[in-house]
Each structure stands twice: as structure tokens, then as C-alpha cells.
């Protein structure tokens, strides 16, 4: 998937201003979302207009840039304004043809930013939406003149940007020809020198030697152990699920270029499949590495969602 994303207005053609400035904040959001997308393997290019001096020139410059890109989606980031108020106003996402995407993005921003969800809104009068050639949305992140909105936006800035990126990451991960495995339920942890729930000589279900997947393991075998399960590096993001080998063969699961997406609430991480488990009698659907469990802010028996496979694309953008 390839995304072309720009900030609204320009350096010399200013947008709304209140408790925060629309142009400056839109640029911050674009770059942070792009960073999140890059980390997840989404190809994204960004643009900020620093040259236009009139509104018409600004709109044409932004749209011309978008239409010059090789991309699947066009995204424009803006901030809204009405009248100064202490009350919350909310977030919305504008569209012409992308109703489902706009609804998902608006909901994600609202949830992650503790903002009112004003939902998706059809806007057939906007130059950007009318003239970009790829499927397009225009995000109105929050109201710059609402003190409540701005406070929540500033506190939750990172989570808002992550949520926007996550919408496109999930779409990439669960495309119909890719979603071979999907489970949701409670989890625990496994693997590494401190996991006394596995025997000292216990191996793994589809990785048989250190040389097969050195990225998963400690460089040295922990003292008193001989099995690969106890040699797993607890800081590395890995996951075990009850994979169906007829759908996701062992050779596929051992491929280091294919990841699982592990989601917990607002957060998501990529992880390598490392083993089969947990046993059905536990009632859990996944075992995570200790480091992954901690990064996601989870404890044993918290809920996760696992989707497989996801390939990180090595593309220059």
C-alpha cells in the first residue's frame, strides 16, 4: 500500500488559528503519522506547501503534488474551527467516495484522542476531494478554538497519530488475500531463560536450530538449558498461536519476512511467529514474548488480537 499525505494550507497561506495553529499542527501530525506508517511497512510520501501565496495556488499546488505520486490513497490533514469555546467539539473525516474509510479514521481519532466523534461527512464542495485522482479523505483532527479539544489533542498526540496510521496498517494486514490466520482472546507469555514452565531441553514447533532464526534467540544458550524455547530472547517481539499448518505451513511461519500483527486496545506491534500454542486447555489464544507483553501494557489473561501474515515492504519513498 502506498499513501500520499499532505498538510492543509501552507507556510504563506495560513489556516485556522486559536489555542493552536492549524498549519503547524497539521504538519506535526503528517510527519508523525508518516513515521508510524514507515515503521509498519507502509510506503508513504508527505508534502507541505511552502511556496504558494494565494488560496487558489495553494489548493492547486497540493492537488498537483498528490496527482504526481504513485499511490493508493490521498490523505489531507486539517484542523477545524468555529468559535472560541471551552467546550469539546470533536473530530470528523470528510470524503466523497470513501465513506467506510472516513468512518474508521474518525472513530479511531475519537477513541485514541478522547474526542467527540462527529463521524464521516460527505463534502462535494472541496477542491482537494474533487480533484485528487486516488481515493481520498480529508481529516479534521479537532477544533483549534476549542480548549477541551486542544487539551485532549495535546495530551494524546502520539496515540492519535498512531491510530491514524493503524487504520492503514490494519487494512494492509487484513486484505482478503492475506488474512490467513485471525484470532482474538486472552494471552500469556512464554520463552526465555526465566520461563520455568517449559523444560530445559524443550524445543519449538517449527524452528529447529538457532541458525534458522538467529533474530529470535540469545547469542548464548542459557546455563543449565539445551532447548530453543529457553534460548528465546525475551526482549524480541515473538508470538505463539494455534496455527493451522494446512493454511499457514511451518515453512511459512518460520519465514522472517512475514510477521503477525498483535493488537491490544489502541496499540499494535509486529511480531514473529515462534511456536505453536498455548494448549487449548488454558483457554488462551496466544502466548507473547515477555518484552511484547510489556510493550503492549498487558498482563496474563488480558485480551489480544493476532492477524497473520503481514509483510514489511522494503520500498524507498
Helix content: 25-40%
Q: In terms of per-residue confidence, which ranges show pLDDT below 50 for 5 or more consecutive residues?
A: 313-317
Number of domains: 2
Order of helices and strands: EHEHEEHEHEHHEHEHEEEHE
User: What is the terminal-to-terminal distance?
Assistant: 12 Å
Superfamily (CATH H level) name of the largest domain? Zn-dependent exopeptidases
Question: How many E-type strands?
Answer: 12
What does this structure look like?
This protein is an alpha/beta fold and 317 residues long. It has nine helices and twelve strands. It has helices at 22-39, 55-67, 99-113, 127-131, 147-155, 157-173, 228-231, 250-253, 290-295, and strands at residues 2-10, 43-49, 73-80, 91-95, 117-122, 136-143, 181-189, 238-241, 258-264, 267-276, 286-288, 303-311. Helix 3 (99-113) packs antiparallel against helix 6. The radius of gyration is 22 Å and the shape is elongated. The N and C termini lie close together (12 Å). 46% of the residues are buried. Residues 313-317 have low confidence and may be disordered.
What structural keywords apply?
Aminopeptidase; Barwin-like endoglucanases; 2 domains; 6-stranded mixed sheet; 6-stranded mixed beta barrel; 29% helix; elongated; disordered C terminus
Amino acid at each position: 500500500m502506498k499513501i500520499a499525505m499532505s498538510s492543509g494550507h501552507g507556510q504563506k497561506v495560513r489556516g485556522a488559528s486559536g489555542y493552536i495553529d492549524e498549519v503547524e499542527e497539521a504538519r506535526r501530525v503528517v510527519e508523525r503519522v508518516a513515521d508510524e506508517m514507515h515503521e509498519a511497512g507502509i510506503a508513504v510520501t508527505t508534502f507541505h506547501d511552502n511556496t504558494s501565496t494565494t488560496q487558489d495556488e495553494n489548493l492547486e499546488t497540493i492537488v498537483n503534488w498528490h496527482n504526481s505520486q504513485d499511490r493508493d490513497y490521498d490523505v489531507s490533514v486539517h484542523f477545524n474551527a468555529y468559535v472560541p469555546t471551552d467546550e469539546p467539539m470533536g473530530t470528523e473525516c470528510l470524503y466523497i467516495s470513501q465513506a467506510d474509510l472516513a468512518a474508521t479514521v474518525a472513530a479511531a481519532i475519537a477513541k485514541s484522542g478522547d474526542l467527540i466523534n462527529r463521524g464521516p461527512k460527505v463534502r462535494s464542495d472541496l477542491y482537494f476531494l474533487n480533484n485528487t485522482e486516488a481515493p481520498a479523505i480529508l481529516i479534521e483532527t479537532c477544533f483549534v478554538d476549542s480548549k477541551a479539544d486542544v487539551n485532549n489533542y495535546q495530551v494524546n498526540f502520539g496515540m492519535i497519530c498512531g491510530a491514524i496510521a493503524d487504520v492503514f496498517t490494519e487494512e494492509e494486514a487484513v486484505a482478503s488475500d492475506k488474512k490467513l490466520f485471525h484470532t482474538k482472546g486472552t494471552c500469556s507469555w512464554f520463552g526465555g531463560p526465566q520461563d520455568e514452565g517449559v523444560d530445559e531441553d524443550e524445543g519449538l514447533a517449527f524452528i529447529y536450530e538457532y541458525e534458522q532464526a538467529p533474530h529470535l534467540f540469545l547469542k548464548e544458550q542459557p546455563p543449565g538449558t539445551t532447548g530453543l524455547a529457553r534460548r528465546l530472547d525475551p526482549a524480541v517481539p515473538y508470538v505463539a498461536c494455534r496455527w493451522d499448518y494446512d493454511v499457514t505451513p511451518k515453512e511459512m511461519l518460520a519465514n522472517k519476512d512475514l510477521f503477525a500483527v498483535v493488537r491490544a486496545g489502541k496499540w499494535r506491534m509486529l511480531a514473529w511467529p515462534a511456536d505453536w500454542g498455548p494448549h487449548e486447555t488454558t483457554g488462551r489464544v496466544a502466548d507473547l514474548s515477555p518484552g511484547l507483553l510489556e510493550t503492549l501494557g498487558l498482563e496474563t489473561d488480558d485480551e489480544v488480537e493476532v492477524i497473520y501474515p503481514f509483510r514489511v515492504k522494503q520500498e524507498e519513498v
